[in-house]
Amino acid sequence: MNTITNFWNYFQQNNFVFLLLNEIPKDQLKIHFDKLIEILHQYNKNLDLIIKNKKNGAELIITANGNPYLFKEVELLVHHAPVVERWKITAFLQPEMNIEKYENGTDKPLEYYGITLRISEMYFIPLENPNKPTDLGIKVLLKNYIVHKDNPRLREAVYVHIEHLIGEKSFANDIAFIEIGQLEFDTNYLTELYKLSCFLCYCFKK
């Protein structure tokens, strides 16, 4: 319990630094951010955090990076979170609710270790495993798969995008396997990736 207390004590004492991300010198911010991560890793070295700044406050997200074996650790840490003014503290990456930008194709490209992908340009097809009929998989189709196919980070980049899109728990629990391939010119029989949440809700009758 001491590691949980230490984490929240440090966060409470320094929360204004993270709240004012754009006004704090980058070198100072890095020191505080590295320290916060270090204290988080004293609790569990496999957890991570994301800070999102909003108009009237900020959100601290504790994530297990999609690892279901760590979900209880995330829930315990967030359960003990203090109330911090102007902060929302969240367990896990939540599903993206604003899909209008994907429908309009106005979403910004997301860069991950030199791999640039836009969710509005990604499609998927559902896959089945004949040996495990209850397992649902998907094949994600990318415009620039040929460019990145030899990059060892490609799979990770696609996973991160999907996790941000449908939420961490759905990513871990609902999709059994993922394949990646090249998007061809004919997209008529494909489904846009941003509709994946709706598709999973339909499949699992959520």
Q: Which series of helices and strands comes N to C?
A: HHEEHEHEEEEHHHEEH
Write down how many β-strands occur, each being a DSSP E stretch of 2 or more residues: 9
Structural class, please?
Answer: alpha/beta
- Taken from the alpha-carbon principal axes, the silhouette is globular
SS strand fraction: 15-25%
Describe this structure in words.
This protein has 206 residues and is an alpha/beta fold. It is built from 8 helices and 9 strands. A 4-stranded mixed beta sheet has the order 8-7-6-9, with no helix packed on it. A 3-stranded mixed beta sheet has the order 1-2-3, covered by helices on one side. A two-stranded antiparallel ribbon has the order 4-5. The longest helix is centred in the N-terminal third of the chain and has 18 residues.
Summary, kept brief:
With 206 residues, this protein is of the alpha/beta class.
Throw out a few tags for this protein:
206 residues, alpha/beta, three-stranded mixed beta sheet, 9 strands
Which SSEs are present, and which pair or pack?
Elements: H1 2-19, H2 26-43, E1 48-54, E2 57-63, H3 71-79, E3 87-91, H4 100-104, E4 110-112, E5 115-117, E6 123-129, E7 132-142, H5 145-148, H6 154-166, H7 168-174, E8 177-182, E9 191-192, H8 196-204
Parallel strand pairs: 2-3, 7-8
Antiparallel strand pairs: 1-2, 4-5, 6-7, 6-9
Helix pairs in contact: 1-2, 6-7
